[in-house]
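Please predict the structure of the following assembly.
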Amino acid sequence: MQITVKRKNSAILDDTVVRAVLGMYPEEKLVERPLFEEGLSGTPIDFQDFRDECDKILIPWQMFLLSKVNLATELGHIESQRQKVSQKLFAKRRGNGNVTSKRIIDRLIRCQNYVTTNGTFPKHAFSGSLNGMQTIDAAAHIVAYFGIDMRVFRSKKKAEALSYLIKRLEENNINVCQGVLTNKILPQVDGVREVYKGTSGFAIKDEKVPFVFIPSEINPNEKDGRQIYTLVYLMTVVGLEQYEFILNKDFKVSLLASRGLQKRIYDITSEFLLPRAKTEQYRGITITETIRDDLSTAYKITPSAVTVIFRKRGHIPDQAVYEALLPDPQPVVSDNGPRRQPGIEASVRKFNGKHVCDLANPAIKSRALFPVQAQYLLFGSVNKKGFKDYQKTL
Amino acid sequence: MKIIDNNGLNHVLSNGIHLTEPYFITPDVKEEYEVEHDKLPHNVKPIFGEEWFDSAAYLLNYQTVLNRRDGRSFYNMTGFGDVSIVAALMTLKASCAGMLPVMIEDHVVITGDVGLTRQLMDEFNDTANEFDQKMQVIRPQDYGW
């Protein structure tokens, strides 16, 4: 790929290096971006355009200048810095998204390594603690361990109930990360945003600070009720330590034998959110849309989830009745992004999570964490303006 | 010609030095500097934008130095300032090729960075080359501002 500077031929980028760098995040299909397609087909590319494009996709432009051998070495270097990446297990909640963004995983593994290297945390007592428990006891244990007041949780509107749950998790050393579309935390380019719309929530194992990720802003169809469900689902995954995938060194994902545990995770999640004791009150009663919607509001889950729970608990044996009760598919929300731009601190905190920020902020102030390192940790790339604005909030 | 790195710029700022002549910085040094500062000090100019500077050759030299040198890390994104300074000097040296020795001006790099100093000494050590002979590396605290 020929790069020009002021219309004069300059550096030549090895096409296999270009493809390999762009292939770091294959789900984003960066190689299909027009500038790279043109460049790889032989059209000379202006250096400034090339740099601007690299800024948009948050990949250092210098990486494209490496030789094949040096790139392989560099990627190996990065891998060794990730330390535990080859042992990271993660699970995801399949939903309308079947994508797991490697870019987001990469960022969160970096954050997780930072937290466990620089923080002092005990071994996480919740991990695996649900094993051997009956469903109802497991749900009660989640409530007790995280200090969740279910009356308070259910008294709130769904958005506030979600925030309340997140806070309970964070105060018990689970780092909750959420998808963010603002302040250049993730690439703001069209094709990549389409990928993120399909992103599912996931959990990353760690013996001290497990991480969970919920899509939030990056998937506009993930309503608050669904996010609450995803969060409880992932809490259950952590509690059972049932991670279904191994993330290998080259980010290839291998599926472990699920051992029929999807049902177990589902049962505990449902019991937590809509206890069987409650649905039993409707035994023998026709489940109407009103009942469905009232329970959805009261128990902070989607009407769809209420319907499925009733079905699975045997209240709606008739398939046609069940299908009629399922809510109509929601129209796909057009992605205009959030209506207002939140402050930089809010975006950084939301994506990276409490424990990352609690450790990084004093380190930035004391310069134990240098500005460039801090930017890569919190923004995933150099983001001078964002970092400057963020520093002012510290 | 004077080229200054972030080490030198920090010295200028922390000592309140008023620059009365032009000092040039390379693109990566500029990027690192702008992480913490809003604008460049007076009389500090980006070399990449200068008409007389062969930017195309600079990028080629950058690629060469990048692939030759250790000391930079993509994980931490450090060391690229050094790469850019070595590449800039290679570019300036090439532009002096064929000039009469007396026409080749002194090139001074103001830095206290030991690693960069060593790289420059290794790169520009041809005793038969006038550019190399006239290239100096001076620590900020030793430079006569």
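Chain A has 19 helices and nine strands. The CA atoms of residues 289 and 325 of chain A lie 7 Å apart.
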